[in-house]
Amino acid sequence: MARVLQIHQQQLIGVVIVQNSTLNKTGLGTSLELIETLIAVFFITALIPFFILNALLSLTQLKSPLTTSTVFDACGGKHFYSQWNHGPLKSSLLLLKILSGEFSFCGISLCNKRPAITLRSNTLKPGIFSVHQLHQTMGYIEMSHSESLKFHENKRSLIFDISLAAKSIVAQMLFDASEKIAPKRFDLLGVSIDNVSKKEALSFIFDEPVESCRSLCFINAHSINLSCSKPDFRSSLNQADCLLADGSGVRLGASIKGVKLRDNINGTDLLPHICRRLQQNGESVFLFGSEPGVAKRAADKLQKKYPGLKIAGTHHGYINQQESDDIVEKINGSGAALCLVALGSPVQERWIEENKHKLECHTVMAVGGLFDFYSGKIARAPRWMREIGMEWLFRLAMEPKVKFKRYVIGNPLYIARILSAYS
């Protein structure tokens, strides 16, 4: 009898927990909807002068003030909304969708075409702003579309949505390139950059047939500055088989030039995908560079995170020319398919240029401070800073003396060079 009562008590507790969880989610949704309604009313009221202006502009041309537009959400929903034919803020009537409760300020991403693959969400409505849209604008590759949707569902709160809206507005103002062209390759101040997606970058590393070792480097604002002051370094960069755009500086520079940059492909975000591909292929990687012990610690942590990952070997980057030849032999003798070189710019790019023809691995990559991050030596910026391209600010705060010249002096110099060349 006591056992039966205990079972009933546990079942009752479980029901209460589930009901409380549901009530909490429902309560959160209701509170957010009320706040969003009030905000929508505020903005609609504030925009009334623009609504009148837009209507008058259409009437003076003897045309209807409004037109009906269609938009799809990532879950496959089809939505119709009114849009102004003339004047500023043509899509501002989307606020009426929030007022009606059909849309939210922040939610499921919207697109002009029906998505090829539809997602599912039990708690989010279509949103003017979305995590996926923010990531698309910034070329952020850490999350897939479905992962970003789940992330929003788990993190949803008033503070999260306000933060998402603010980040999205900043990103749109600084980095939106939706109307620009997206060539496969473009020149930025003399450096030829490959404009590829994460999938294409991984295909270059693993899938394309090779007869000899190929090189891959990441290009950021610092790389561009160095290439402007050191023509020999620019030559080293352009000798690489693939140059990937890394960071908000290159994205901003490309946008000013009129180029739509695809994914922001930096080594730190790309490495997890590389490790998974190495696991699948049964291939190994050699880690060369950084201070003594750092590459080994990074290797240990990577193997812990990705069980079965084969590390062919590690070696620090404090070497002379004679030791450099020995390192090449060590890499070749390890049987590594991939070699990551973390010597810092411009040393790593020059080392690769000088030794690529000696290496027997299929790809060698210049990865900068990658091992410092994965070994735990240096903390990485919070996600919200990475999402809006401000990771450099965190790096400056963590290492002010080391990074002062690169960021405080280098960033304004880079912007000045870009504006001088392309504005």
Structure, explained:
The protein is of the alpha/beta class and 423 residues long. It has 2 domains: 154 residues, no CATH class; 238 residues, AF0625-like (Rossmann fold). Helices cover 54% and strands 15% of the residues. It contains 18 helices and 13 strands. The strands form 4 sheets. The protein has a 6-stranded parallel β-sheet, sandwiched between helices. β12, α14 and β13 form a beta-alpha-beta unit. α8 packs across α9 and α8 packs across α18. The termini are far apart. 36% of the residues are buried.
Number of domains: 2
Q: Which sequence of strands runs across the widest sheet?
A: 9-8-13-12-10-11
How many helices? The count is 18
What portion of the residues fall into strands of 2 or more residues? 5-15%
Structural class by helix and strand composition: alpha/beta
pLDDT below 50 for ≥5 consecutive residues: which ranges? 1-26
User: Mean pLDDT across all residues, rounded?
Assistant: 90
Largest sheet: 6 strands, parallel
- CATH architect. name of the largest domain: 3-Layer(aba) Sandwich
Q: What gap, in angstroms, lies between the N and C termini?
A: 83 Å
As a whole number of angstroms, the C-alpha radius of gyration is 26 Å
Number of strands: 13
Quaternary state of this entry equals single chain
Helix content: 40-55%
CATH class category of the largest domain: Alpha Beta
What overall geometry do the principal axes of the alpha carbons give?
elongated
CATH overall fold name of the largest domain: Rossmann fold
CATH superfamily of the largest domain, called what?
AF0625-like
